[in-house]
Amino acid sequence: MLSPVSVALKFGFLLVLYLFLLWVARSALKDLRTTGQPVEGDDRGWERGSDATGLHAASEGLGPGRELEGNPRLRVDRAPGLQPGSTFELAGGAVLGRGALAEIQLEDPFASQRHARIVWEGALPVLEDLGSTNGTYLNGEGVEGPQPLHPGDRIRIGDSEFSYVT
After folding, report:
1. What CA–CA distance (Å, rounded) separates 61 from 9?
2. What is the enclosing helix (H) or strand (E) of 20?
3. Residue 103, C-beta contacts closer than 8 angstroms, at least 6 positions apart
4. What pLDDT score does 132 carry?
């Protein structure tokens, strides 16, 4: 005859197993929802130039006609499948991810198909997470909404790390 403790442990194990399976299914569905074609003019709920982005203070002094000096690039510090020190041009912006829709393709198992993107707000580059499962980190902090990039900023996606350089 089974003791009540062993029966409780069996049900507890089954409960934890089902919760884990639900978490995996939720993560997979969230990742699948972000693999569609990018929509022209898709701003992910934020208006360009609105006060909600907090970009005004970061772009002070960059008036019309003024551009950032140098050639904006993303340098690979560490990334599976990419050579450390190699760079990617960011003149027109870029999408980072594991899928074929990404301009900068990552071989990182922790990256989503379309994980993050860098777009230009006038003369200011902006990093934005695209609803990824594991998140995007700028200088060690999770990206919540669009964040301006400055020379020397470090971007982490899963096990991949990049530096923004000009």
Report:
1. 64
2. helix 4-33
3. 88, 94, 95, 96
4. 86
H or E element, residue 155: strand 154-157
pTM given for the model: 0.58
CA–CA separation, 92 and 84 (whole Å): 22
The DSSP line for 85-149 is: T-EEE-TT-EEEESSTT-SEE---TTS-TT-EEEEEETTEEEEEE-S-SS--EETTEE--S-EE-
Q: What separation, in Å, do the N-terminal and C-terminal C-alpha atoms of the chain show?
A: 72
For the ranges 18-22, 49-53, 83-87, 97-101, the maximum mean pLDDT occurs at 18-22
Task: Give the per-residue pLDDT at 62.
Answer: 47
3-state secondary structure of 51: helix
Which tokens hold the place of 87? 């760079």
DSSP 52: G
Q: Got the DSSP string for 69-88?
A: SS--EEEEEE-TTS-TT-EE
Question: Residue 162: CB partners within 8 Å, gap ≥ 6?
Answer: 74, 75, 76, 77, 79, 154, 155, 156
Instruction: Supply φ then ψ for residue 107, to 5 degrees.
Output: -100, 35
